[in-house]
Amino acid sequence: ALWNWVHLNSRNLILTILKTNEQGYVSLNAPNSIMPQRPAAQETRSHVIPRLIKNVFIVKKWQSAKTLAISITIAEWYRNANVTVFVENPIEFPSRLNVRAFSQTSQNHLDLVVTVGGDGTLLHVSRLLGSDTEELPPCVVFSMGSLGFLANFSTAKWRETLTQVPCMEPTYRTRLQCTTNSTDKKYYVLNEVAIIGRGTVIAQLEIWINGYFVTLCEGDGLIVSTATGSTGYNMSCGGPVAPPSVPCIMVSPIAPASLSFRPLVLNEHARLTVTRPLRGRPLTIDVQTDGRSFASLAPGQSVDIVRSPQPLPVLTTTQNDKDWLESITTKLKWNARGAVQSDD
To answer: How far apart are CA 6 and CA 26, in angstroms?
Structure first.
């Protein structure tokens, strides 16, 4: 099927043809189109939620009987619809459901990820879906944790929510890619990278941005955060807060020795390198990614942090960051205070 779309500007009449491919996706061919551009983190993204979901990955909170029970219910609902269900540990699920074990090979075939737990469960999914080339599957996040700041949906309405998935829109949450010159490991980070000094003396860290030496950080450490992680450890250290749709990287010091050391907000294409000086003080410098230990820096070693090519699509039923605004007011109680006395 073909549709014609006509776009007028001051000089040209541009004819753009939208053509659906065999999978029902829509492709756009407009060599000189001046259609509005999305932010850099979301450019070229046209995530289409398939109406016919064939493969689902269900991830539950670790060692939680409540999340296991609802996960089994959701898995059974999908299996009754002839959907292939992947899980981390098939032994936990009844054999009659015939669920499959998740692997990096199966990741490329996933149509949807369903998480049942809290914010930590979504961070765990971000670590599991480590890819630089393939678009990540969209995620539906159900809240059964202590805070659920990143969770948009209640398990009480799981059936209604999952039925509405084809009509939802994804928020592309920027991830960071973290590597060091001391190990071959590569980590994908949804919230933040924390470089922390462990000892009785002040830590010293060189900050390089795009190959340019910026400053020497002296204090307890440094937080490098995404917009998603801005309301976590970054905010506790006095860093700025931004909605997840903002494509940026935030740099916030932890207990700096200088009063003039203030947080930075960088564009998402910045390459950040944090180096431990060769002649630094004797202490341990730990690198943590989303709360997990990643590496330790010896004198002269560094950690490189860049934006991951593939953001994490998290589904929502709202627009213009409404779900995020609701979360900071209702869950974080942003600017909330009790009345001391009546205005009368």
So the answer is: 17
* Predicted confidence (pLDDT) per residue in 187-225, tens digit: 899 999 999 998 888 999 999 999 999 999 999 999 999
Number of H helices, E strands in the chain: 6, 23
Which helix or strand (DSSP H or E) is residue 187 part of?
strand 186-189
pLDDT digits (tens, 9 = 90+) for 131-140: 776 789 999 9
Distance between CA atoms of residues 265 and 252, nearest Å: 9
Torsion on CA atoms 112, 116, 120, 121, rounded to nearest 10: -40
Of all residues in the chain, what percent carry a pLDDT higher than 70? Answer: 82
Q: Is 18 exposed, middle or buried (0-12, 13-18, 19+ CB in 10 A)?
A: middle
Residue type, 23: Q
8-state DSSP, 290: T
This prediction's pTM: 0.79
Q: How far apart are the first and last CA of the chain?
A: 67
Cα separations in angstroms, 16 against 3, 77, 304: 9, 41, 41
3 in Cβ contact with 17 (< 8 Å)? yes
